Fold this sequence. Notes:
Layout: E1 3-7, H1 11-23, E2 27-31, H2 34-43, E3 48-51, H3 60-68, E4 78-82, H4 87-95, E5 100-103, H5 108-119
Parallel strand pairs: 1-2, 1-3, 3-4, 4-5
Amino acid sequence: MARILCVDDSASIRDLMTAILTNHQHTVTTACDGMEAMQVARDNEFDIALLDVNMPNMNGLSLLSKLRKLDHFKFTPIVMVTTETSDYRKTKAKNSGATGWLAKPFTEERLIAAITKLTS
């Protein structure tokens, strides 16, 4: 199963994603903001990353750009998971290297479908 990096400033969202994903036999590593995520990402490889857009210290779009500069993240699927719905933000994320966009609130089925699609 997939090794997944989940980054969100909301502990309840991190807990929800972890519960859903581990129930489906995935291995989950969490971070509470972009700064913590970069520390984890420098030393670990993941099959996919799920990033919140609006976070303190380093937002998801800045994190996305920094992750794409790491050799082992150049081709890793990265999905933005957010309440943001503006086309401008989606386009900016795509141009920065985002693989996909998952709107909050998400269902277990949509989360698992995204993971399955991008890691198969």
